[in-house]
Design goal:
This protein has a single domain (9-39, 52-376), classed as Alkaline phosphatase D (PhoD) (Purple Acid Phosphatase, chain A, domain 2, 4-Layer Sandwich), CATH 3.60.21. Helices cover 22% and strands 22% of the residues. The chain has helices at 9-16, 75-82, 101-112, 115-123, 132-135, 147-157, 205-212, 233-243, 272-284, and strands at 25-26, 60-64, 86-89, 125-128, 175-179, 186-190, 201-202, 220-221, 249-254, 290-294, 300-306, 312-317, 334-339, 343-349, 357-364, 369-376. The N and C termini lie close together (11 Å). The model is unreliable at 1-46 (pLDDT under 50). Bound molecules: fe (ii) ion.
Length: 379
């Protein structure tokens, strides 16, 4: 969404800065990882009452991330009470952490056995992308060797048609969907931040302890090299085409935080050129009413930056549906939050009220709003 505040200059200066004085080691050496096990039988949801893409008017979109299939998932009670038109899974939808097709399937079936999830699946349209743990490896990217296995298991579980290009396109599982009639159209873009993401770089342990840990920051450092990318060029081209399509509200979903600065953990800030490119692309395509949403962090907040014309862009992060408890990292662009309990994100559109307000924010496991912000589609 575009209003006025803050500084794109932060992003631009970061693009220009050099990190050549910092020693780099492969991220895997510092990666704690996590491997969880689960096998139970699954239950297919009964008859679906989901809305379809197309002219169905959407007024309530909920979203979330980081749901450990082995943990109790009481949050579905509050989510299902709201009966969202659409629910977006932003990744870490299961903790698979495997290269084995059967293990993927078993862990997806564990999620499928959870009653609250079954109710959601029955009542609401679901769109999903992945983050690292359902991609298959903690903080993984382009080099993860089992990504084709993972992709088919993921798309099978989420009901993607056999003919879908998501199953074969070489820019990963990116997809875009459209809901609502002309002049009330919602565009939802689900990015793939894993398939083509170039390797991360990180501080060596001693430097991390001395320079980051004491400030509650992570160990990753920005990669400003010419090859560094999150989306890959084909996904960028697809995104540009999409942003030129007509829509009244645009939601761009990224599994990792887009506008936070600077956490030191996984985020677009580790790829400052990509971060700046996205902000610039939204401006140059004249894509109005863009709301970025993200997950992954095990806490929730709202970040805001301003483009070079002074227009604001928001990134609403919700995490996690089950996994919380991390001490929230430093985020200079945070304007609301952090909230550290289990949570989900909400986006509510009042198509009839003057200005067509959009209220968005985060609710807790009881359905109580923890923070929110309103913008107008017409302003
Ligand atoms: Fe993640």
């Amino acid at each position: 969404m575009f209003l006025n505040k803050h500084h794109l200059a932060l992003v631009v200066s970061f693009v220009l800065s050099s990190c050549s004085d910092i020693k780099e080691v492969p991220a895997e050496q510092l990666d704690p990882g996590s491997v969880l096990a689960a096998v139970t039988s699954a239950q297919e949801p009964s008859e679906s009452r989901q809305i379809a893409e197309g002219d169905a008017l959407v007024t309530k979109i909920l979203f979330g991330s980081c749901a450990d299939q082995n943990d109790p998932q009481p949050i579905w009670k509050a989510i299902n009470k709201e009966v969202p038109d659409v629910f977006l899974f932003l990744g870490d939808n299961i903790y698979a952490d495997t290269e084995d097709k059967q293990v993927f399937e078993q862990k997806y079936e564990k999620l499928n056995s959870i009653k609250g999830f079954q109710t959601l699946r029955q009542n609401s349209k679901i769109l999903a992308t992945w983050d690292d743990h359902d991609y298959g490896v903690n903080d993984g990217g382009v080099d993860y060797p089992a990504k084709e296995i993972s992709r088919q298991a993921m798309l099978d579980f989420w009901g993607e048609p056999e003919s879908s290009e998501r199953r074969s396109q070489d820019w990963g599982i990116y997809t875009a969907s459209y809901f609502g009639p002309e002049n009330q159209r919602v565009q939802i873009i689900m990015l793939d931040t894993r398939w083509n993401r170039t390797p991360l770089t990180a501080l060596v342990k001693d430097e991390y302890k001395a320079k980051r840990k004491i400030f509650n920051k992570g160990f990753y450092i920005p990669d400003t090299g010419p090859q560094a990318t999150i989306l890959g060029e084909k996904q960028w081209q697809r995104l540009e085409e999409e942003l030129k399509q007509p829509a009244d509200l645009r939601i761009i979903a990224s599994s990792i935080q887009v506008l936070s600065y600077f956490t030191g953990w996984e985020s677009w800030s580790n790829f400052p050129q990509e971060q700046a490119r996205l902000i610039e692309l939204i401006k140059t395509t004249k894509a109005k009413n863009v709301l970025l949403i993200s997950g992954d962090t095990h806490s929730a907040d709202l970040s805001e930056v301003t483009d070079s014309d002074g227009n604001s862009l928001f990134d609403l992060t919700s995490s996690g549906l089950t996994n919380t408890g991390h001490s929230p990292s430093h985020n200079q662009n945070r304007i609301l939050g952090p909230y550290v309990g289990q949570n989900y994100g909400f986006i509510e559109i009042d198509w009839q009220a003057p200005g067509r307000p959009v209220l968005f924010g985060v609710r807790d496991v009881e359905g109580v709003t923890q923070f929110s912000k309103q913008i107008l589609i017409d302003r």
